[in-house]
Specification:
- The chain has about 90 residues and is mostly helical.
- It is about 75% helix and about 5% strand.
- It is built from 2 helices and 2 strands.
- The protein has helices at about 20-75, 80-85; strands at about 1-5, 10.
- A two-stranded antiparallel ribbon has the order 1-2.
Length: about 90
């Protein structure tokens, strides 16, 4: 069975099957839920990548601070500073 659209084209029409409209609505709802779940998963992945980047940057900054503290402590200690230039 076909009907004529506003553009004058024939378009198929689904036969009136009991429960067809309900099944179609449920399918559409499920597709929307899947799309929403995929969007949430992508957003979570993006947040995880940003957190990894922040963590890496924080570890690098911490390493620089630790190095600066070590250098300052070694330079403040006369015994340690002598040991810096000793050859084994």
């Amino acid at each position: 069975m076909t009907v004529t659209t506003d553009a004058g084209k024939a378009a198929p029409v689904a036969p009136a099957v009991p429960g067809f409209a309900e099944a179609s609505r449920v399918l559409t709802e499920i597709e929307q839920r899947i799309t929403a779940a995929e969007d949430k998963a992508v957003a979570a992945e993006i947040r995880a990548q940003a957190a990894e980047t922040d963590s890496r940057e924080a570890r690098q900054a911490l390493a620089l601070v630790e190095d600066a503290i070590r250098r300052r402590l070694l330079c403040a200690s006369p015994e340690a500073s002598r040991g810096l230039y000793d050859v084994a």
